[in-house]
Amino acid sequence: MSYAYLFKYIIIGDTGVGKSCLLLQFTDKRFQPVHDLTIGVEFGARMITIDGKQIKLQIWDTAGQESFRSITRSYYRGAAGALLVYDITRRDTFNHLTTWLEDARQHSNSNMVIMLIGNKSDLEARREVKKEEGEAFAREHGLIFMETSAKTAANVEEAFINTAKEIYQKIQDGVFDINNEANGIKIGPQHSPANQNMPSGGGGGNQGGNCC
Amino acid sequence: MSDDEAFASAEEGEEEAKGSKEKSTVVEEQSKSGQAAPAEKGGAKPKGKQQQRKKKGKAQGKATAEEKGKASQKTSREKSSVKADTSTVQAKEFQPTPAASVESQAPVSQSSELVQPSTKDSIKADSVSDKQDSKHEDVKDISTTEGLPDTKYETPRGQKQEVLTDQDADKSVESKSETQPDKDSEISAKSAGDVRQSLSKNTTGEDARLGNSGEQSIPRDADGASPNSGEEKLAEDGAKDEGSWNWGWGSSILNAATNSLETFSSQVGEGLTTIIDSVESSLGVPSPEDVAKADSPTELDTVPGEEDTVTAQPHEKEASEEALAAKRAAETQKGEEDKEAEQTATPAAQEEEDAAKAEGSWLSGWGMSSISNMGKSLVNKSQNLMNTGFEKAENLAAGGLDILETIGKKTYTTLTEHDPGLRRAREFLHLRDEKPSLSSMLREAQEQADVQAKRDEESEEALKVNFTALFEDNQGLAHLEALEMLSNRSERKVQSLLSAMEEDMLENIRPQLVEIKDTFQQAFEKEEAGEESEHDFSKLVTENLSELHLGTAPDKLNKVQENVRQWIADFYSHEDHSEISDAKEVQQRAIQSLADVTSKAVEQFHKAGELVLMQKDEEKSYTHRAQSLAKLSSVLVTEVDILASKFSQCLNKIGEEKKTTEEVNPMVTSVYLEASNASGYIQDAFQLLLPVLQHAAIQSALALSL
């Protein structure tokens, strides 16, 4: 429930590469072979522990469809981490990475940690993009790289947690200003005494006001 | 002047030493295997060195009072080093470790000095013995037999110089030429090497100086000889005339100054001698003469040139030994020699000796000498005394600091050795009564644990009934945030599109935008007038959503609402409500339900906004969509109100049944409060859609115009 930090992630990439499946695997530890088309953005959240600290990952799973691009772009802002996903069985999804990366870099803060993910690693037989190519792309653009399988859950945890570790390290290094929510990092509410004194009420009203 | 001299001699100490060695060897014609190397060295450039020395002497001769200060600084430095030597010697017995650490360099220099002098000593001793009386030989013997070599070395040095200066003063008095005394003093002060030189050249001069055993006539001889010997020097020293003038007629003033200085230095000296006395006694050297000697090098080391030491040795020893012996035996028995010796030794060694031992002895010595002699010697003395005074003061200061440092270090090491980390010391320094007992510590820990557990429990409980937390958990907050981002982006787009829009186009679209805006504003008013009558939530929601023509199904929203209603229905259907749940559970359930519904409502609005922007469906006007959304928000707010009142009824029922109205009342309040919160979120979400709808309307208008 309570957490020290909240990191905002975004998952981006072509439609059908398995973004929502990755999220579902990470948050619910299950795989859904047929997934509804994501409209705009969906959300998932999970607690992880890094360096003994509870960190809540709030993941914004964006729609991959081209028609949503203009909308999803508006969600990039304020993300601390991004999972840029392609499908190893579809080369075109790999070829579009540059566009996605440009988009992400343009609409997010420069310190955002980007993890490149080659998904569907379980479908080795249909592989079109070699792992080396993914590695080379990541190296070239300064990304972290992993091949995952949302179906088998291979590397899914690692992908999310390693990104969080990188962000956490950046916080430790003072790169991220945790007091600036535009960085996609919030400090958890667990230490605020208001929670104990207000089982309900007051705070909520304030929250409502903030949203205007 | 003596300062200058001291400086000069200090600088040239080494060179002179070599030179003197060379000369002495030449004079003595003694070839020693051990001295072969230095002799050669000296032999290679004896004249050059001499010239160098002269030049230096000249330079110093030019020096006036200002330079003196400079020189004194340097001399003081030298002295300090000398002092360091002696102090280390003392410290060796006293506090070996700290002394060594503080003055690590001192021992080295000391040792080097020790080594060097020894050879010279022998050389000089030989030369002295050759040239001089058996008396001197005795002195030499004494010096060699002495237990503390380094102190002895230094002692002679200073005293020798003094002797020389005294002599020179005498000479100058006799000659009455103002230039001469300076020269002489310079010569003498410069180095014993010069003296040596002169000695080797002019046996008379040598005799005069070395053999100034007592007769006052000898100084005159020396005076006569000195011009010869100092011929070279005469030319150089012209510059010092002025200084000499001052010395000449200012002697009376200086006398007074000397007296005061003497008292000062004697006092200081006393202090030092007492210190040294104790040290020496601890070292097992009881004789006060040694003390005096040990002391004198420190103060009188104005001429550290090692030659001086050599040449001075016989004199000094003779003087001091004899004087002491004489004093001890009987003061009346003093011969002229003794007196002279005393006189020569007076400046520093005697002062201290005498101060420490018998004042009368040196006073009597004073009385014996001629007034003029005394005046001149006083001048010299005053200089020496000034040096001595400075030196002593500095020694004292430096010594004091050293001691403080030593004490500090010792204290620290002692503490740290036995108490690593100074833990005990800290404990000791801290208040002891603060130390808690085990039982109190345990009690404290228990209390803390209880408080922590209670707090955790409370926070968990609090989170269960914290609408905001639940709203966040249901991703309602995320949707609201996303909707806000979308809204902001649309707002910017609207501004930019309108500003870039042509006038007629703007006129066409303006009514529609105003209409949408009015719809949103009226929705507020309607809601305010809305009553809490029962409604068919799912029907209304589905109806309004389909009116949007966005293809979104209100599945989630309807399902959540259904569940909530079901729970409430279940609650009412039971006769004994308390069996199902207690008030707290009902409250949690109520707030959870409100959060769920609100989250889904916000999500619905968010999705609607996204889809409005996405779909270019022109069947329904944006004004109509805005009205549908307004109705939807109204339905949602109404539903929230109904749910709140129903939950409140449940709570009240439990309160009535269990007679815990007081306990239930705040819960009812909280449920109503959260319901208003939920309504707030829903209305906020709805209002965020205004720019989105306007944006969509402009987009479609632009699309149509193309």
Layout: helices, strands, pairs:
The complex is a heterodimer of chains A (212) and B (706).
Chain A: E1 5-13, H1 19-28, E2 41-50, E3 53-62, H2 69-76, E4 81-87, H3 91-95, H4 97-107, E5 113-119, H5 131-141, E6 144-147, H6 156-172, E7 185-187, H7 194-197, H8 202-210
Parallel strand pairs in A: 1-3, 1-4, 4-5, 5-6
Antiparallel strand pairs in A: 1-7, 2-3
Chain B: H1 2-28, H2 36-44, H3 46-62, H4 65-94, H5 96-102, H6 105-131, H7 134-145, H8 149-175, H9 179-190, H10 192-201, H11 203-210, H12 217-229, H13 231-236, H14 241-249, H15 251-283, H16 288-300, H17 306-329, H18 336-356, H19 359-368, H20 371-418, H21 423-429, H22 438-464, H23 467-473, H24 476-500, H25 503-529, H26 537-548, H27 555-573, H28 577-580, H29 583-614, H30 622-658, H31 661-705
Helix pairs in contact in B: 1-2, 1-3, 1-4, 1-6, 1-9, 1-10, 4-5, 4-6, 4-16, 4-20, 6-7, 6-17, 7-17, 8-9, 8-12, 8-16, 8-17, 8-18, 8-20, 9-10, 10-11, 11-12, 14-15, 15-16, 15-18, 15-20, 16-18, 17-18, 18-19, 23-29, 24-29, 24-31, 25-30, 25-31, 26-27, 26-30, 27-29, 27-30, 29-30, 29-31, ...
How do the SSEs of chain A run, as a string of H and E? Answer: EHEEHEHHEHEHEHH
Proportion in β-strands of chain A: 15-25%
The residue-averaged pLDDT of chain A reads 85
- SS class of chain B: mainly alpha
The class by helix and strand makeup of chain A works out as alpha/beta
